[in-house]
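help with this.
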Amino acid sequence: MQEELTPQIIKTIGESGEEVYMKLQEIVSVDGKDYALLSVVQQDTLPTTDDNEEDELTIMRMNKTDDECTFELIEDDDEFNFVAQAISDSDEIEEE
């Protein structure tokens, strides 16, 4: 039986300095590092249960310390492509 988890909403700052709220979709580990798959939500309230599964996902690197977790954009194209390919390969395996 799969446990129903409450979605986590994360507030971050966008490129123009505006507040952006993102829903944590999944955490994946690739090559010993953790990455978060996030989708933008319109406000800091929990999304409804009829979320659109086709939402655009953002991949961010997770940096964990003892008492907090921060999210960082992946600026290295090679790292981003490596992580995106690993996630894509993982999705294909799960669908089989």
Q: What stands out?
A: The mean pLDDT is 79.
